[in-house]
Amino acid sequence: MKAARRSAHLSATIAALLAGAMSAHAAPTDPRGGEPAFRALYKELVETDSSWPDGSCTLAAERMGAHLKAAGYPAADVQVLVDPAHPKEGSLTAILRGSDAKLPAVLLLARIDVVAAKRSDWTRDPFTLVEENGYFYGRGTSDDKAMAAAFTDAMVRFRQEGYKPKRTVKLALTCGEETEKALNGVSWLLKNHPETLQAGWALNEGGGGSLDEAGKPVSQGVQAGEKVYQDFTFTATAPGGHSSRQAPHVNAIGWMAEALARVNAYDFPVDLTPAARAYFGASAPLYPNTRAAMAAIGSGKATAADYATVSAANPSWNATLRTTCIPTMISGGHATNAQPQSVTANVNCRIIPGESVESIQTMLAAVAGNPKVTVALADPPQPKSSAPPLTPQIMAPIEALSKEMWPGVPIIPRLSTGATDGRFTNAAGIPTYGVSGLFSDPDGQGVHGLNERIRVTSLMDGRAFLYRLVKAYTG
Ligand SMILES: [Zn+2]
Predict the structure, then answer these.
(1) How far is the CA of 177 from the centre of ligand 1 (A)?
(2) 17 vs 61, higher pLDDT
(3) What is the spatial distance between Cα 238 and Cα 250, in angstroms, rounded to a whole number?
(4) Mean pLDDT, rounded, for 177-194
């Protein structure tokens, strides 16, 4: 009896141990498994100040790299890469090799630098992760350490569970996106270690879901392509002289005013990217007043009147349809009683991906319409990129997962009128998609501003979504 009881107890213990071992083995394949470890990793990342110039991306990269090595990645597959001239602006790169070397890799791209935050301005310490009323607060909780932590955690779990992808998975956590003053990690890696980023496509920030005021999901955004930023300098010069002696129609300010007025009145031609077309098609039902015109754009059958309706209804829609160039600064003249000798103006363009900076320059000079007003590039051009295609290979897994996790929530592709590091990867021939499954409140969640936050449920959902999406792409 005693012996029998002991053996029953023993076999129960063995069964429990086995179950424990099995669940320890099986747990990481649960997309929501290992949450305590993820929370610790996320906390460590948020609490590592990586703002410029006081913080250190290199330290954040080293800390995330330590998680990967602890999970079993060989040291050679986890690298912290640092330009010696920018010791605090390092990046982390890692690789999980696929079984089919012929398949192009998927790159998981996220940033670990954040916008600076002043303790005295914030309600809570920006570099302490605080969980309160269903939110995580802290600098970078949303932009972009949520994604960086979710990607790193996915890589950790893939290794721990012995996941053998067909397609190689690459991870790059980079620095220098938020400030022009810092070294841009993506641009630097492409020049110095291109193999770390080379991939068939990349997942990046720039997408994500929208919530309404009550926290209900409204739409799931997928970013495909970004407009290209370019400033042009307009210059008009004239002989000048006493303001009492005017030669007819010889005045640099007058010439500049006429040229800028023509630029202001000019609409660049509609240039519909795949993402823009998909955006208008998918959004049409949400906007009753412009539904017909938006649906026409989505179906590829829009008339000039449809484009005019949509452009007039919303500046962002206008910017989604075409390159835009607007005068933003002007300076000229040297005395109230003198004819101006020179006037310069800045014209800021946001160019549809695929259009060349040179073609826009030529167009601006033609619109300015006066050879006395010259048009020059204010800065060296950004690399030219094309808009990434929305292929079924990219979209089908996003659609399937989204349907399961957020039933009835529409997927809305879009062309971004702003910029992320995707401008470099797209230009390097790596089609880059903004997709995260992270849903945000309508007020912007304090990104770049005060008391940045993210819903805890949004972060956990996004983490599960990204883990599953990467597996869907690579399994
Ligand atoms: Zn940002």
Answers:
(1) 8
(2) 61
(3) 7
(4) 95
